[in-house]
Amino acid sequence: MSLLLRNAVLGETPTDLFIDRGVFQRIGPDLDISADKTIDAAGKAIVPPLVNGHTHAAMTLLRGYADDMELHTWLTEHIWPLEARLSEEDVYVGSLLACLEMIKSGTLFFNDMYWHFEGTARAVTEMGLRAALSSVFIDFGDARTAEDKQRRCLDLLATYKEVDPRLQCALGPHAVYTVSRKSLEWIRDIAEEHDLLIHMHVAETRKEVEDCMAEHGKRPVAYLDELGLLSPRLVACHAVWLTPEEMELLAKRGVNIVHNPVSNMKLCSGTSPVESMRQHGLRIGLGTDGCSSNNALDMFSEMKSAALAAKVATGSPKALPADAVWEMATAQGAAIFNLNHGITEGAWADCLLVDLDQPAMVPCYNLTSNLVYAASGGCVDTAICNGEVLMQKRHIPGEEEIIARARACARRLVAG
Length: 416
Ligand SMILES: CSC[C@H]1O[C@@H](n2cnc3c(O)ncnc32)[C@H](O)[C@@H]1O
Ligand SMILES: [Zn+2]
Description:
Function: Catalyzes the deamination of 5-methylthioadenosine and S-adenosyl-L-homocysteine into 5-methylthioinosine and S-inosyl-L-homocysteine, respectively. Is also able to deaminate adenosine.
CATH topology of the largest domain: TIM Barrel
Structural class: alpha/beta
Mean pLDDT: 97
Binding site for Zn(2+): 54, 56, 201, 289
Shape: globular
Number of strands: 16
Pfam family, one: Amidohydro_1
Bound molecules: the ligand CSC[C@H]1O[C@@H](n2cnc3c(O)ncnc32)[C@H](O)[C@@H]1O, zinc ion
Number of helices: 14
Binding site for substrate: 83, 174, 204, 289
Order of helices and strands: EEEEEEHHEHEHEHEHHEHEHHEHHEHEEH
Radius of gyration: 21 Å
Largest sheet: 4 strands, mixed
CATH class of the largest domain: Alpha Beta
Family: Belongs to the metallo-dependent hydrolases superfamily. MTA/SAH deaminase family.
């Protein structure tokens, strides 16, 4: 089905955009063309969608479940015991809620790592956005479970390789403290063989670094380098506890970073050297992390937090300026996950129409400044993915039912 957007604000000027077969076919003023559906986009800025570079979508069900504690206690005493009770259906319902929240706040691609991969895959396909789903790997050093998990991981990759072009598969070794050396080596080889990204929590807390030193005699970055995991395949999330030498090495190896400022602050994991990483030339995307450590999936709020936290951390208002944060949340994230993003002819027809009549968007001296420092997800009027309208005038078909199902599911889960 073809789609015509009339008079969208692109830069300073109103522009028409003709979309067909999921791609921007023509962009220009007053296009002499008709389409199956036309949207009047006057008064709306057209921008690329936001890319959530690291999350655990179904953790929406755990929003507000265990707040105000550090990572280790949070995970081991609260989150993991509850996650052990999750079914694939729960993950499906939690992921539906996550997709709803993300579309409503302008995110049309997310990089996920969670249990019951199939549940999240089903939700993504039904909701129409894009995602990279990692086949989770945790073996706690147990060789017998490692073999079962490797088999399951290969099964998932084989099953999902061609299920939906909007879904990418990735490998998800959770962290150096949950995955054995042997399994990390296996993951490195499988990633190479199947041409996959490796999605991992890296150097998130001081405890992770100290424990890694105690167990392997090396900090996480050096340990991963020894295992041959530092490469452009690696999507290293959090990356809080890095020395300048480690940043240099990560940049040399072409490792991708995903910065998670809200989660880092809420779990008090540490102050990310994000401005320094930028100066080292690292490619950095932005992510929310899961809904139990954030507690939302709104990338607008993440962008503002990233900019403000970097200024406080460096003592300079020039750190992480609005343009840089916007790039992290859009083009840099898109580059990490090989997304053909951009409002240009030939790019995938993934875009947002942002309502310039919302109070937070007025006046508009600088669109990027407003998007990063003033806007919220509520300023997104329309979301289009692969040429399909997922949300128009802030309405998504079926949203009331998703909310009711998620509420009931969370209630059941917590009741035990
Ligand atoms: C095995 S699926 C992912 C696993 O990771 C847990 N998790 C969520 N947020 C974090 C974080 O910031 N650091 C480490 N682990 C995290 C999630 O609850 C799942 O168990
Ligand atoms: Zn995480």
